[in-house]
Amino acid sequence: MAAQFDRTCVVSAKNGAIVRKDAEMSSEEVETLEKGTVVRVDSERTLSNGTVRCHIADRGWVSSKTLKSHDVKPQVCVLHGTAANGKIVRIQLGALLPKLSSVDLVFVDGPRLASEGNAQYNMMRSFFGKDQVLREFGTATLDDRGWRTYDGVDRAVDEAEAAVRARFPGAPPRALLGFSQGANFTTMLAARAERRGEPYACVVLFCGARPGWAKQMPSLLFETPLATPALLVAAKEDTVVGDGPYEMAKLFASPVVLTHAEGHKPLPSADPEALNALTSEIAAFLRQHTITC
């Protein structure tokens, strides 16, 4: 039966062995698929044998046995705040990580080095260590309302998209998660993806700024509210972005907004019960939108 199937190449990876279309499968390639049942993959949301879930961008064939032998998880891209990096945002999200065992988090560094003139630069080095290489996704400015904008925003978003693609060469992530500047760029990336017909399954946005950058972008991107499911986290004592998360929520058709009682950080630390409740809701939201049945 396998000989009738077409393929371009056999790819062995942690997401399973995929046989793509365009040429006939050889017996050796069938062996590569571990002699499991060969099932058709037609979309980015695929379920095998009722239990094993995978995210594959290419159409082709995949071994259900291979899928069952791997820990196949949806991938979620994480974008850090200004004057930070992937290691720092991993620390900032530390209390959430144990609850996200159902997804594979990939932390992406901003493509630009943060300037020493960045208002957060010295504070971040002091707190996280002088050996940290601090990065950013764009050079922040303010519009005449005091809302967040970026110098050369289109180019900055192009660079952010390239940074994400570099970490996800086989297929795009299922979802995006961002803190502060990372939340701003997550929203712009989600808008681009949705308008080109390739929406992310969801986004999670911590402490985003008032979106002056929405008016900098081509009008089509934010002409109508985004259908992409969005969960936004606002901090009641946040003096950095103020009511930014609530203004950002207006860019989405059906946003969910959660709050914590502390300042400009993704998660609270003073109240263990509040921390547990917030992280549980975030984890449930990601499971709901990234695990497809």
UniProtKB/TrEMBL annotation:
Gene3D superfamilies documented for this protein: alpha/beta hydrolase (3.40.50.1820)
Keyword Nucleotide-binding: no
Molecular function per GO: hydrolase activity
GO CC annotation: cytoplasm; nucleus
Listed InterPro entries: AB_hydrolase_fold, FSH-like_dom, LovG
UniProt-listed SUPFAM superfamilies: alpha/beta-Hydrolases
UniProt domain Serine hydrolase: residue ranges: 73-265
Keyword annotations from UniProtKB, A to Z: Hydrolase
Superkingdom field: Eukaryota
PANTHER family assigned to the protein according to its UniProt record, in alphabetical order: ESTERASE OVCA2 (PTHR48070)
Entry protein name: Serine hydrolase domain-containing protein
